[in-house]
Amino acid sequence: MSAIFNFQSLLTVILLLICTCAYIRALAPSMLDKNKSGLLGIFWKCARIGERKSPWVAFCCVVMAFSILFLQ
């Protein structure tokens, strides 16, 4: 089933996108900072969410991992 039609899969993809963008911005900030607007600005915004809300994102990743491993 596609991640668009399954809510838990959609949340997993969004969490992975946020974590990946924050990690890439930590390694190479210039790669995401030059695209703050437009279609590629989504990655910059995800990186900002990952940086500013990192305790909440980490908690959501732990909860999602628990639900995938033990509840499915």
From TrEMBL:
Matching Pfam families: DUF1242
Family annotation (InterPro entries): KISH_domain, Ksh1
Membrane topology, as annotated: Single-pass type I membrane protein
Signal peptide range: 1-26
Main location as per UniProt: Golgi
GO CC terms: Golgi membrane
Keyword list, A-Z: Golgi apparatus, Membrane, Signal, Transmembrane, Transmembrane helix
Family statement drawn from the similarity comment of this UniProt entry: Belongs to the KISH family.
UniProt-recorded name of the protein: Protein kish
Natural source organism: Perca flavescens
